[in-house]
From TrEMBL:
InterPro entries xref list: Acyl_CoA_acyltransferase (IPR016181), Bact_Acetyltransf (IPR050832), GNAT_dom (IPR000182)
Record-linked Pfam families: Acetyltransf_1 (PF00583)
Record bears the keyword Acyltransferase: yes
UniProt key word Transferase: yes
GO MF: acyltransferase activity, transferring groups other than amino-acyl groups
Tree of life domain: Bacteria
Assigned keywords, A-Z: Acyltransferase, Transferase
All copies of domain N-acetyltransferase, residue ranges: 1-128
Name of this protein: N-acetyltransferase domain-containing protein
Length: 128
């Protein structure tokens, strides 16, 4: 799988985003591509100078179970480090069991965030 940065005007990215709820324009997206076809996406949004939010990680159903979301998450973390973020957050509903399992296995810690919502947070270190 190839992971690429694409502009929000990219039609394949637009199709993936349309499969989800609308997202603010200040999100930077990465796209997972297999055989030239966009099959996954995920975004990074700056909350402040040191904190980023990973949002809208999505893999087309036919491509799930192949570790694509994990690869995409790692690429988003690298992008966050490049932007100077040392804290990353993800917010999700408690019913998103696959996303919860991925977050926990990637080192994110659960932080309660209101009824039916859970925030996961990870502190990342910049290499010296």
């Amino acid at each position: 799988m190839l992971i690429q940065a694409r502009p929000t005007t990219d039609p394949e990215l637009a199709t993936l985003i349309a499969a989800q709820q609308p997202e603010p324009e200040d999100v930077q997206y990465l796209v997972g591509v297999v055989d030239g076809r966009a099959i996954a996406c995920g975004g990074l949004r700056a909350l402040d100078a040191q904190t980023g939010e990973i949002t809208r990680v999505y893999v087309r159903p036919a491509f799930r179970g192949r570790g694509i979301a994990r690869q995409l998450l790692a690429a988003l973390e690298e992008m966050a480090l490049g932007a100077g973020h040392t804290v990353l957050r993800m917010e999700m509903g408690a019913d998103q069991s696959a996303a919860v399992a991925l977050s926990r296995s990637a080192g994110y810690v659960e932080r309660p965030d209101g009824p039916g919502r859970v925030r996961y947070e990870k502190h990342i270190l910049v290499a010296a």
